[in-house]
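Good morning,

Attaching, inline, the backbone tokens for the sequence recovery test we're adding to the shared suite. The designed sequence is right after.
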């Protein structure tokens, strides 16, 4: 049985709040079930790793819970968040701009290596 879940957020657009709940909720559940969870935010979803972005977003209009609250829940459960390196240039970010829940920056080769060489990993994409 797999022991690691890799969630790739590549097609999830922060401008569409309703797209943001499921990946973070599933990361929280998987981490609570004692699976190792890595959430890699790349492309447009990479903006979510920048301080101030997720705090201003909600999954459902009128909800008191922000997308950043979902990220904090997943992080507290044990999920690790990663920003893909091209996002720094794409969104004019520096490592200091990343939210504290972001464990660091990864490149495409690291993501591919984790997916292809870890037989104990399963991948979800959003």
């Amino acid at each position: 049985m797999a022991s690691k879940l890799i969630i790739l957020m590549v097609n999830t657009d922060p401008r569409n709040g309703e797209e943001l709940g499921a990946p973070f909720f599933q990361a929280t559940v998987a981490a609570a079930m004692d699976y190792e969870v890595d959430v890699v935010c790349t492309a447009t979803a990479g903006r979510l790793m920048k301080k101030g972005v997720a705090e201003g977003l909600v999954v459902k209009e009128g909800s008191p819970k922000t997308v950043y609250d979902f990220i904090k829940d997943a992080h507290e459960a044990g999920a690790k968040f990663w920003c893909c390196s091209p996002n720094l240039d794409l969104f004019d970010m520096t490592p200091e701009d990343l939210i504290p829940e972001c464990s660091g920056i990864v490149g495409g080769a690291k993501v591919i290596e984790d997916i292809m060489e870890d037989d104990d990993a399963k991948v979800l994409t959003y």
